[in-house]
Write a structure and sequence with these properties.
Helix content is about 15%, strand content about 35%. It is α+β, with helices and mostly antiparallel strands.
Length: about 270
């Protein structure tokens, strides 16, 4: 993928041109955590280097018959208007998800709530009818930072995985490990998910949950893979030798674990 304002000089050295000053600087190569092995090959740069994205949850739309509004078709003020009541606003790290056009193309991108929205259709028609949509949208937030997210901020964070805000704890009891998610927001009455969630904890969904048909949240197997690495990170530091080796061949590493390593057990 092309990097704007960059070029390779006659000596084969990558250079970057500053937009503000025009100064030519060396273009530093990515760190090992970006390029070592194949574990992060499908991560977009923004997945780790986006500091935050604007997020809003819980929008509600009512038709108010006595409120003055503007009719865009007739180009005049009229009596009666749709009014949007927005929920809470956040500027938090993005949720991650998948862009997948076929079996071979699978890219992890940054997402934010495109709409977690209720439309009170009955307020317009007079019937008791409401429309609810929970759709996330890809978000290029333009909040790029040089220092990327650490491993735990993705593998051990419920907002990043799509569960919404709350606590995600790895508990070991009687030699068995399991992940426990305690949500911050109450469940929405229409779909039973936390108000700020994209998916339920360990949910396998076939529903369209994105504003793009080729984009989706993590499926159950992908969640398991993410949280298995997350379990390792509860004991091992991100820059430890074992975690660096996991970037090269995680499956091989799993055959070499000791009795001290308690991997997650999953319910059906």
């Amino acid at each position: 993928k092309a990097i704007p304002n960059s070029f390779i000089n006659e000596n084969g050295v990558s250079k970057l041109i500053s937009k503000s000053s025009g100064k030519v600087m060396d273009l530093n190569p990515p760190k090992n955590s970006c390029t070592k092995g194949t574990a992060h090959d499908n991560l977009s740069c923004g997945s780790c280097h986006s500091a935050w994205v604007p997020q809003c949850i819980g929008c509600h739309n009512d038709f108010e018959k006595e409120t003055e509004g503007y009719d865009l078709l007739d180009n005049k003020m009229i009596k009666g208007a749709w009014v949007e009541y927005a929920g809470q606003y956040f500027a938090d790290p993005p949720t991650l998800g998948i862009e997948q056009t076929n079996d071979e193309h699978k890219k992890i991108l940054t997402f934010a709530p495109g709409m977690i929205m209720t439309i009170d259709k009955g307020s317009y028609t007079g019937d008791k009818e409401e429309i609810f949509k929970r759709l996330y949208a890809p978000a290029n937030a333009h909040t790029t930072i040089a220092k990327g997210r650490d491993c735990k901020s993705c593998h051990n964070d419920p907002l990043a995985i799509g569960y919404g805000r709350g606590s995600l704890e790895y508990q070991i009891t009687d030699g068995k490990g399991r992940w426990i998610f305690k949500q911050r927001f109450a469940n929405n009455k229409y779909d039973g998910l936390p108000e700020d969630a994209w998916i339920g904890f360990m949910e396998e969904t076939k529903q369209l949950r994105s504003t793009r048909t080729n984009m989706r949240p993590f499926n159950r197997e992908e969640q398991k893979a993410i949280l298995t690495v997350g379990a390792c990170l509860t004991c091992h530091k991100s820059d430890s030798k074992v975690m660096q080796e996991s970037l090269i061949d995680f499956e091989k590493l799993m055959t070499q674990i000791t009795e001290k390593c308690i991997l997650p057990e999953w319910s059906n």
